[in-house]
TrEMBL record:
PANTHER family: METALLOPROTEASE, PROCESSING PROTEASE. It holds the Pfam family Peptidase_M16_C. Residues 185-354 form the Peptidase M16 C-terminal domain. It comes from Fulvivirga kasyanovii. This is Insulinase family protein. Transmembrane segments: none annotated. It comes from the Bacteria.
Length: 421
């Protein structure tokens, strides 16, 4: 009989096995990545455009509008016909703009895949970008932009990227109303031809042999080769190290502190993730304990590493009342100095390790989240050995390793800051 008065034995083993995608190539040559782990009769089909993000556009906002317009009319169907047909079968279409790899996702019952997939393929292969729909989408995006510009947290994040990368870099550009207005049908058609005609497919959920046959039969056209892209964007650094702007009527000020950092393929990347987690990656982190719980300056503060395909940056972010801005910046610097000066205590390091492993496990609960795990490495040219390395590094990292990472990448003197509000 189980003795409930005795606690279960503690284990520090971080061996985690989870299902992995299987690669299949369609007759057309299109790569299909399959994760057949469905408990429910639901399938998600994601069309990924490897060169469809803003990084590859010649004019600002072309990628965004070209993606949005895919569902606004094709050679065979109007936007109303497309949306009504999806609604009739309880399907959902999701458009995912991105800096690097944009995508379109279809969620539907597996039994309806054969009925719905030709409509999705028509959107991908044969959009017509009708002028009246472009005018409507353009106005919607302009209104969204105006709303975003009223929110200090969104403005601060945009200005922070701009500070790091500069105006001419795709990661640093800020979309304006003028950028949206200048987009014409020919711009979108050209972008579609050059960048959205190359794609890969990820199928997750209940993916049967019949579903694979349907996908193979529908996506039967050979994809185009991606457009040549030679820009290296070497002039990315802005001269200024800080931006501070008052925003009339704002109730809070949004703070962003950070710097450019290493890419996901760098050997220091995972140790840096762990170091960032100590600083502000979970509810019991140092920034949360100090600035939220002790000082009461904010409801929440975080530190994270944003890994883009061609560059990465680390950012500390929070929203505070205007009168707390200077004190909050001082406390952030204090925590960075402490992290750079003293080793992390063993009990704190154990807490961080357990939290990171628990969070990792929580993201393995569904086929869709498992597919996200695949995308996370695939976009960066990595394989599943990355996760083996991740778990091993979390298990074996030492306080001295974290001290080294903090001094290499998180020293207060190397950080830039943006304050809006």
């Amino acid at each position: 009989m189980l003795n409930r008065s005795v606690a279960p034995a503690h284990t520090s083993s971080y061996q985690i096995k989870f299902p992995k995608v299987k690669r299949h190539t369609l007759d057309s040559g299109i790569p299909l990545y399959i994760l057949d782990e469905g408990v429910q009769p639901i399938i998600k089909l994601e069309i990924m455009f490897p060169v469809g993000g803003t990084y590859y556009e010649a004019k600002t906002a072309t990628s965004l509008l070209a993606l949005k317009m895919l569902k606004e009319g094709t050679e065979s169907f109007t936007s109303s016909q497309l949306s009504n047909h999806l609604a009739q079968y309880g399907a959902f279409l999701e458009l995912n703009p991105s800096f690097d790899v944009s995508s379109v996702s279809l969620y539907c019952l597996t039994k309806h895949l054969g009925i719905l997939l030709p409509y999705l393929a028509e959107m991908i292969y044969s959009p017509v970008f009708p002028e009246h729909e472009l005018n409507r989408i353009r106005q919607i995006e302009i209104q969204q932009l105006k709303l975003q510009n009223e929110r200090t947290n969104i403005v601060a994040s945009k200005r922070f990227r701009n500070l790091l990368f500069g105006n001419n870099h795709p990661y640093g550009k800020i979309i304006s109303e003028a950028d949206l207005i200048q987009q014409q049908q020919d711009d979108l058609r050209r972008f579609h031809k050059d960048h959205l005609s190359t794609f890969e497919i990820v199928a997750s959920g209940e993916v049967s042999a019949e579903s694979i046959d349907i996908i193979n039969n529908v996506f039967n056209r050979t994809v185009a080769h991606p457009a040549t892209h030679t820009s290296n964007y070497t002039d990315v650094a802005a001269n200024s190290s800080s931006i501070k702007e008052d925003k009339a009527g704002a109730l809070q000020s949004s703070i962003r502190v950070g710097r450019m950092t290493i890419n996901k393929t760098h050997p220091d990347y995972i140790p840096l993730l762990i170091t960032s987690h100590v600083l502000g990656g979970y509810f019991g982190s140092r920034l949360m304990k100090n600035i939220r719980e002790d000082k009461g300056f904010t409801y929440g503060i975080y530190s994270s590493v944003v890994a883009l395909k061609h560059d990465s940056y680390i950012v500390i972010g929070t929203d505070v009342k205007k009168e707390f801005v200077d004190d909050t910046i001082s406390e952030i610097d204090k925590e960075l100095n402490t992290l750079c000066s003293f080793p992390v205590a063993p009990h704190e390091l154990d807490t961080v390790k357990n939290h990171m492993i628990g969070h990792f496990q929580s993201r393995l609960s569904s086929a869709f989240s498992l597919a996200e795990k695949f995308k996370n490495i695939h976009i960066h040219g990595l394989d599943y050995s990355y996760y083996d390395q991740y778990l091993s590094t979390v298990q074996n990292i030492t306080s001295q390793d974290i001290l080294e990472m903090a001094n290499k990448y998180l020293h207060p003197n190397s950080q830039k800051s943006v304050i809006i509000g």
